[in-house]
């Protein structure tokens, strides 16, 4: 069982969801249900398994159900039907005190509008979660100082949110979420309000932190480049339904339908696709005369770096793992096919 298990979640918005639920269960879509019942389908039979330590991205057009899904994970809303567990524990069965403790201790949240407390300085914002948990001042300020430093804001402890740029405010948001050492970070469009360069810095920062911390991160975005950059896996929602879940390369190489393909069309495939996903796996070893060291790549080498080699020599490129063991080969045509826009097949 995975760390977070979401099983057959339906969310119907409206005063009398049961009739709409039955329609959704029998296969009617969002548009039809709205026309027949006046109820809005937020989520339609969504099941997902999220592993401990992975960065899991949820994507989809506006109104597809991304926020609705993440709000189920902290129980800001409850499903019309379905089950959700964290570490085997059914979170829908938690009573209010248990739920409050669960949110405080095990979840960290970062949202698009930074949600900082305007009358508290950076230090007191970052220490806020610990203060609520009853941590004494010295301890919480030591911890907060460490996180303020970690997100690059040392020296700003006494500034107030309105004295900081958007990027800095979001760093405070991240430090605040991490200060309580949560198991899970929920991030809803956390970087979407930032300028492109600042946004890219924050993505970098998050990836650096994650390489050390190995939190379970559920990250919502409508930006595919962001999703591909930070996601270990990506789920794509449409009209409340899950249309595809997969690793970034799987989504690009094998989009489940036209909707997913429309998302992936403008992706820079050369920067996203890697040797391991296009190579022909091999089991044999290389004989001495074939061992041209110039035609060697690693499994994680991106296509942009493979293409010049593929064009320079007719020899197949060899993919070697960390122990220099041959694990696959790549021919020129495979590189060209993978870089072209139509899905490879
Ligand atoms: N509280 C609510 N009451 C009624 N309908 C709602 C409510 N919250 C969401 N919905 C509906 O549920 C659907 C999914 O909304 P949701 O906010 O989850 O979309 P989203 O993918 O987060 O979109 P965006 O990218 O615009 O943030 C939409 O049709 C929306 O109108
Ligand atoms: Mg949303």
TrEMBL record:
| UniProt key word Cell membrane | yes
- Location of this chain's protein in the cell: Cell inner membrane
Reactions that this protein is recorded to catalyse? a quaternary ammonium(out) + ATP + H2O = a quaternary ammonium(in) + ADP + phosphate + H(+)
InterPro entries found in the cross-reference section = AAA+_ATPase, ABC_osmolyte_uptake_ATP-bind, ABC_transporter-like_ATP-bd, ABC_transporter-like_CS, Gly-betaine_transp_ATP-bd, P-loop_NTPase
Q: Which CDD domains match?
A: ABC_Pro_Gly_Betaine
Similarity remark: Belongs to the ABC transporter superfamily.
Q: What is this protein called?
A: Quaternary amine transport ATP-binding protein
Organism of this sequence:
Thalassospira profundimaris
């Amino acid at each position: 069982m995975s760390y977070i298990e979401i099983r057959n979640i339906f969310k119907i918005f409206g005063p009398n969801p049961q009739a709409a639920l039955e329609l959704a269960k029998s296969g009617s879509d969002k548009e039809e249900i709205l026309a027949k019942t006046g109820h809005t389908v937020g989520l339609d039979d969504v099941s997902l398994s999220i592993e401990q330590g992975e960065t899991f991205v949820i994507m989809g057009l506006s109104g597809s159900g991304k926020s609705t899904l993440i709000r189920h994970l902290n129980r800001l809303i409850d499903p019309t039907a379905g089950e959700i567990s964290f570490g085997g524990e059914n979170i829908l069965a938690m009573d209010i005190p248990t739920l409050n403790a669960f949110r405080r201790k095990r979840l960290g949240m970062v949202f698009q509008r930074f949600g900082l407390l305007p009358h508290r300085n950076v230090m007191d914002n970052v220490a806020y979660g610990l203060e609520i948990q009853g941590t004494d001042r010295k301890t919480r300020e030591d911890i907060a100082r460490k996180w303020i430093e970690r997100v690059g804001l040392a020296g700003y402890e006494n500034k107030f949110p309105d004295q900081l740029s958007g990027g800095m405010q979001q760093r405070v948001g991240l430090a605040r979420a991490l200060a309580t050492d949560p198991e899970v970070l929920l991030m809803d469009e956390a970087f979407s309000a930032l300028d492109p360069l600042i946004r890219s810095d924050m993505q970098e920062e998050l990836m650096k932190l994650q390489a050390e911390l190995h939190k379970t991160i559920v990250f919502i975005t409508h930006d595919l480049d962001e999703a591909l950059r930070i996601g270990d896996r990506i789920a794509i929602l449409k009209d409340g339904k899950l249309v595809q879940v997969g690793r970034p390369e799987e989504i690009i190489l094998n989009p489940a339908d036209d909707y997913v393909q429309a998302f992936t069309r403008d992706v820079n495939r050369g920067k996203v696709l890697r040797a391991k996903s296009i190579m022909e796996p091999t089991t044999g070893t290389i004989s001495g005369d074939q061992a041209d060291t110039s035609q060697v790549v690693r499994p994680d080498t991106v296509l942009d770096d493979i293409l010049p080699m593929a064009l320079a020599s007719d020899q197949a490129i060899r993919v070697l793992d960390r122990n220099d063991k041959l694990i696959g080969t790549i021919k020129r045509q495979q590189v060209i096919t993978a870089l072209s826009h139509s899905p490879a097949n």
